[in-house]
Amino acid sequence: MTRTAHRGRGLARGAEGPLMLGYKAFCLRNENRYIQYARARSLEPVRARAVVESVLQALVMQWPQIMSSDRPAFEAWELLVCRVAAAAREARRGRSDRGRDTVHRALSAQEADVVLLRYRLSLSPAETADLMGLEVPEVTVSLRKGISALLAPT
């Protein structure tokens, strides 16, 4: 866990109890996979870590609201995806190769993320669903649609 993310900046002093423990557990559980995802989206290691740290800092500021939502993991995933996509666009500027993230150029965002998590990070459909805040059937459908689209003749 990052040194700054686990401090819980932004939470009220009285929120140091179960709410903060939940945030710390969330960070311990997801930080490495978030970094792996950012790396798979063509970010350099230092940049990937910085983006994930910024996401975790933003999450701690919004943690009470996120925990009161129907799908907290989905809320966190959406923030991660937005920040990683912005960092990947910024990293591609000035490069002629456009990066290695061809899956996200070929598929919808959710389909591309599911394919990336399943085949680049070797997560099971259940692990993918858990990380993205989705249900396993949603992951299964996105995976099938993504693979079909990738295999379709052009």
Characterise the protein shown here.
The protein is mostly helical. It is built from seven helices and no strands. Helix 1 runs antiparallel to helix 2 and helix 6 packs across helix 7. The longest helix has 23 residues.
Characteristic terms for this protein:
154 residues; mainly alpha; globular
Estimate the global geometry from the Cα principal axes. globular
Written as H for each helix and E for each strand, in order along the chain, the element string is HHHHHHH
Instruction: Let me know the number of strands.
Output: 0
Question: How many alpha or pi helices?
Answer: 7
Uncertain regions spanning at least 5 consecutive residues: 1-14
Short description:
The protein is mainly alpha-helical and 154 residues long. 70% of the residues lie in helices and 0% in strands.
Give the topology, please.
Elements (H helix, E strand, L loop, with lengths): L17 H23 L4 H23 L4 H21 L9 H5 L2 H12 L4 H8 L3 H16 L3
Helix pairs in contact: 1-2, 2-3, 5-7, 6-7
